[in-house]
Design goal:
By secondary structure, this protein is an alpha+beta fold. It has one domain. Helix content is 19%, strand content 37%. The chain is built from 3 helices and 9 strands; from the N terminus they run ααβββββββαββ. The protein has a 4-stranded antiparallel beta sheet with strand order 3-2-5-6, with no helix packed on it. The chain has a 3-stranded mixed beta sheet with strand order 4-1-9, with no helix packed on it. β5 and β6 form a beta hairpin. The longest helix has 9 residues. It is elongated and about 85 Å long. Keywords: Signal. Pfam families: PEGA. It comes from Neolewinella maritima. This is PEGA domain-containing protein.
């Protein structure tokens, strides 16, 4: 029984590797021209540009929206890609499940988002 202990220890330590080694959120930098735009992620306010904030990972793509009074809002798709660290989970498949549920299975494709906001045309009188 004890001769397998080192192997079992390696298996348990390497479980859900992406969660352990890369975390479940990423710093994302949002900027706009003009600055001061409110940034929303799936309708939830994050703050005003320029902004660096932690964004939780999710296994699906999401929309980020920039809004500034007097300007047309702009939405961009935040895409994700496979987090290569999850491949270590080949040693223990339940780690994939943990990483997928927590969101660490993927990471954002980009860590910076920029938007140019255009003013609404003046109203005709």
């Amino acid at each position: 029984m004890f001769k397998y202990l080192p192997f079992l220890l390696v298996v348990f330590v390497s479980s859900s590797c992406a969660t352990v080694f890369t975390g479940t959120a990423d710093d994302i930098y949002f900027t706009s021209q003009p600055s001061g735009a409110m940034v929303y992620l799936e309708g939830h306010p994050l703050g005003r540009t320029p902004l660096i904030t932690k964004v939780p990972r999710r296994t699906r793509s999401r929309y980020v929206t920039f809004e500034l009074e007097g300007h047309q809002p702009v939405s961009q798709l935040m895409t994700t890609r496979l987090n290569a660290v999850t491949l270590v989970n080949l040693l223990w498949w339940p780690g994939f499940i943990v990483d997928a549920v927590i969101g660490a299975l993927v990471k954002p494709e980009y860590d910076r988002y920029y938007s140019e906001l255009y003013a609404y045309p003046p109203a005709e009188e």
